[in-house]
Amino acid sequence: xxxxxxxxxxxxxxxxxxxxxxxxxxxxxxxxxxxxxxxxxxxxxxxxxxxxxxxxxxxxxxxxxxxxxxxxxxxxxxxxxxxxxxxxxxxxxxxxxxxxxxxxxxxxxxxxxxxxxxxxxxxxxxxxxxxxxxxxxxxxxxxxxxxxxxxxxxxxxxxxxxxxxxxxxxxxxxxxxxxxxxxxxxxxxxxxxxxxxxxxxxxxxxxxxxxxxxxxxxxxxxxxxxxxxxxxxxxxxxxxxxxxxxxxxxxxxxxxxxxxxxxxxxxxxxxxxxxxxxxxxxxxxxxxxxxxxxxxxxxxxxxxxxxxxxxxxxxxxxxxxxxxxxxxxxxxxxxxxxxxxxxxxxxxxxxxxxxxxxxxxxxxxxxxxxxxxxxxxxxxxxxxxxxxxxxxxxxxxxxxxxxxxxxxxxxxxxxxxxxxxxxxxxxxxxxxxxxxxxxxxxxxxxxxxxxxxxxxxxxxxxxxxxxxxxxxxxxxxxxxxxxxxxxx
Length: 488
Prior knowledge:
Helices cover 36% and strands 21% of the residues. It is of the alpha/beta class and 488 residues long.
């Protein structure tokens, strides 16, 4: 594409050279002949430090924020490289968002499950859906691993250009909003699930975290829909401060003005009120929190035009999400749960569900991510102490924190067992649990391990399966031994 066309929205025409650009890159290692390199100041690296490497690799134009002199190729300085990247990527790929119905979901907890529920309902109704989220990226029916909850602006625009799907369902993280990854995209639907203490290493205060999330709703299209959970205090606050614009505000809550009300929640069966009717809401997945996720999905699908009975039918057949309250059953009757929960509220949801479902004892295995928001840790411990019978503290991702320092911190908390090897911590909890006990493993969900542990596995799910398979083999060996002894 011609560089002047590519940069028409970010720079004055007379300052742009007339040249053809093959591709855009932010990684000097992938730069090639006739590329445009955009220097981004990242969390760990500053792209401006790699400009000369990009030029040596063949980049013919550079965009950045810093005041640089004497480059061998044209350099265009912009106020914000991330926003420039979003604008340029959209132009390069032909503004692909304009031809899609885009559903953005933000909030601390529930984004992934709500996204999967909406996708399931819409596909049951004959629609095609792409999905960008923390578990997977799904485009044109093909599934790819996700690197971030919300892709960087360049990847996002490329994904949108490739997608032939009618709807795009997007988990929108606070980092994705703050870093301009969704800049320039307009949403047909904006959903707010809830807000809980998280990411304050990045946002510093809950108010800043909230206001960052709220910015997504500035990108709602005219005649779009803001769907907000007013059962959460931050959702109610968002509903009250949204500017008067030409979009529909649809809320979930207990007030007369709320479009949907949850009348009761019981295991496997809840009741909602919608448009003057009381409706049964049946789910095959456990957890009170999933009733709220289902209600958000219900409201979204109903505004799209999916018939109510079809929505109810689809929710009854929704089988869940990998790593989100994923259930396993041990041969002795123990129930094991793998979940992504990493906030106090999410802990409460998981542990309370176990109690409601009749757990006699609850073993809770979790850790803390290094170099992340440490201010939420006491709340997490408090909730776990209140609802779990035994806590097993272990390692999560260290993110550069020395293992000795993390181990010392876990020991100083002086709460329950400390088993730093995550796989052995999970094995310990499972082997100690009895028939009606539950083992709740939180923090990583479906994510792969970044550390090397004792057992030959690479995720919490694989650890559970390995331990159960190993137990099964031991039981079989014992039975064979009994049989041999009888035959003697």
